[in-house]
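Example record for the data management plan.
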Amino acid sequence: MKNLKELIKNDERVWFEIEDSHKKQFLLFAKDNNCTWMNGDEILPTENNCGNLMGINSENKLGFVATYCRHIKPINMPRIIKFSQILGEK
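Corresponding structural encoding:
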């Protein structure tokens, strides 16, 4: 599995599309890559939850992204990565 630095590259932030069945794996991935929640709290994969669209910025801060944002196609929309592809699934 690629690490977060490889995925973000030079982007200021990226969004991850996450299937319900992969949410805990995604949180573990974020924690293993030294991410914290936007407020600085530690990510606890067995206790926390995430949405189906999450953002990580270049400072390794994780936050929820409203699905609405994806559909309005904001200017400078971040790259969207399907987490299932990182796991090697289609």
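Summary line stored alongside the record: The longest helix spans residues 23-32.
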